């Protein structure tokens, strides 16, 4: 069944809930197993806890495995405590190895060992292998459920192999060709197998130009490779080119979401605090280092203003424009930062180069500064009856925005050259730096021209 629309899903869910309430097992199974897996997960999440035991009773462990895989980690931790140990072990035996490894990596080691000991040895060994790789690597991300064939196989034998091994595989759209030592030598698509004569050999159908990744490759690089080559899966090999697993596109989507969240955390100086499931205390703990650091930067800003105290005392009206200068500088710098971090992440920076990118951002800053300066030179004399004040504020903003775009563009590049994630050049950090420079420019010009300002 295709995924239902909202109204149809609610009605369908009501029928399933009613069958559970009336303890009509056959009706429940008939209705529930027709649902799309996503809807099955959603329905399970909507169940009251007192109804879950009946749910576990009606569904086999293999049927519930699909649902368990669709839950987030916190829900999985809660559900596993409700399951009978033998039922849970059987469920894990029917799950994909990479999904099991993801879950076991999030729970305490003794509990993880108990689960592995209860599983079939072959299944457990595959999970243990995945857990042995570094976090966020291709090896940790890959699944062991893939189809491999020999170059000497003919289409007929491959089709027969697919019928037997296909149901357990993560994907069958790519068939990987290995030699007698399990080294990757080629790849053939399911489409090529289907349309070829039954007597044709794999050697004549396969491509020897295989895009693969080494097991210790960072998961972000794997995601980029799959995206760039429009793959549904990428084979994972050892340093000696032995095929040990595959990374599928659904796992890559999770990686991209995870990496985007991490970048957003860094960009907003709230690393690890964007998860709505953590407590207020944990969120405050994660945010506080950046906030304290930025607080000290704020003291520098205050110090800059203090250095020009005499100028402010003499021309008090200058204080009116401090927020304007600071906000404009910070906003412009953050925009340039976002553009640069994005171009670094997508690879467009490498294609265009540093000079081109900085020239574009500097040009943008010049035009933004010019537009803002012209507007201020029209508005300020009307509000404060001073053309000199309008000139000081306008030229200060023009210079500030021009420099702010350069800072926003250059800082993430420098951080990248230092082999760090450019997203750590957070918006608040860039904003504070540009605030300080903007105030220095503003008060320096105002001090130089103070004799021409009305008191």
TrEMBL record:
Location within or outside the cell: Cell membrane; Membrane
Listed PROSITE patterns: CBS
Lineage top rank: taxon: Bacteria
Keyword Transmembrane helix listed: yes
Keyword field contains Chloroplast: no
Classification via Gene3D superfamilies: CBS-domain (3.10.580.10), MgtE N-terminal domain-like (1.25.60.10), SLC41 divalent cation transporters, integral membrane domain (1.10.357.20)
Record's bilayer topology term: Multi-pass membrane protein
Annotated SUPFAM superfamilies: CBS-domain pair (SSF54631), MgtE membrane domain-like (SSF161093), MgtE N-terminal domain-like (SSF158791)
Transmembrane intervals: 290-309, 315-341, 362-384, 390-415, 436-453
Location of the CBS domain: 142-203, 206-262
Pfam families for this protein: CBS, MgtE, MgtE_N
Main location as per UniProt: membrane
Keywords assigned: CBS domain, Cell membrane, Magnesium, Membrane, Metal-binding, Transmembrane, Transmembrane helix, Transport
Function noted in UniProt: Acts as a magnesium transporter.
Subunit and interaction comment: Homodimer.
Xref: NCBIfam families: mgtE (TIGR00400)
Family label: Belongs to the SLC41A transporter family.
Full protein name: Magnesium transporter MgtE
Source organism of the structure: Evansella vedderi
